[in-house]
Design brief:
Blueprint lengths: L1 H12 L6 E9 L8 E2 L4 E6 L6 H9 L5 H7 L4 H9 L12 H5 L5 H14 L2 H6 L7 H19 L6 E4 L5 E7 L2 E6 L4 E3 L2 E4 L1 E6 L7 E7 L8 E2 L1 E4 L5
Parallel strand pairs: 1-10, 10-11
Antiparallel strand pairs: 1-2, 1-5, 3-4, 3-6, 6-9, 7-8, 8-12
């Protein structure tokens, strides 16, 4: 009797809503000759339920037409220089990094930036202000149309994933999901990630166990198989533009 009372008291003292942390680290190779690198500034989602329970969502992800960055900007008749600048920084919009002087009037000039800079010179009467605010004189679709298109696709898919959590990787490819209840989840990037000449999709089942709570579990993610990698992406050739 005394043991039973003690057990009840211990159970009452335990946290009623235990939570934990899942740390993911995403490292990829653009090709076999390239070194592994952290996948920076990419959003991942943690969706409650098993792969089978999320089958409808996974089917929708598979059916979703993919418009690549090159195809999107080619449709806008963007210059090769702008497309290359975006590709070099793996950017989804022109806001991802600063537009340097050499891009508006130097050796590496990007025509769209140069035209926006010239318009800014007339508007602001200052070269430095015109450079810093160069994005304000770009066409809206050139500025962030590709990013908005991706966000629209993600928003549509998330309607089938109530309770989904999201994080963005840092420059080293690391991100944290916090306040997790024990259970089964699906780790997904929802929209394939472009890597050189391929695109990669990640949809992996993750177990958060009672014993794992209150600790940080590194969960390794990659597009290459390795004994330590727990989530290997499905890699496909980058689709041709329509």
């Amino acid at each position: 009797m005394k043991f039973a009372v003690t057990l009840v008291l211990l159970l009452l003292l335990l946290p009623q809503n235990p939570s934990g942390v899942l740390r993911i680290r995403v490292r990829v190779k653009a090709d076999d000759a390239a070194p592994l690198r952290g996948l920076a500034r990419k959003r991942f989602f943690l969706i409650p339920g098993t792969l089978e329970q999320n089958r409808a969502l996974l089917d929708a992800i598979e059916r979703q037409p993919l418009v690549t960055r090159d195809c999107f900007y080619r449709k806008l008749n963007a210059s090769p220089e702008l497309v290359e600048w975006l590709k070099r920084g793996d950017c989804e919009s022109v806001y991802c990094r600063e537009v340097d002087q050499e891009l508006v009037a130097g050796s590496k000039v990007v025509p769209e930036f140069a035209a926006a800079f010239a318009a800014g010179q007339k508007e602001f009467r200052s070269d430095e202000t015109a450079r810093k605010w160069v994005t304000t004189n770009l066409d809206r679709n050139l500025r962030d149309g590709f990013y908005r298109d991706r966000q629209g696709v993600i928003a549509t898919l998330l309607k089938q994933a109530p309770g989904a959590l999201s994080v963005m990787t840092d420059r080293n490819g690391t991100a944290f999901f916090t306040d997790l209840a024990p259970g089964t989840y699906v780790l997904s990037n929802l929209v394939p990630t472009e890597l050189g000449q391929t695109v990669v999709s990640w949809n992996c089942e993750v177990q958060v166990k009672q014993g794992d709570l209150a600790t940080e579990k590194p969960y390794l993610v990659s597009n290459r198989k390795d004994r330590l990698v727990k989530c290997v992406g499905v890699e496909k050739p980058i689709p041709a533009c329509q």
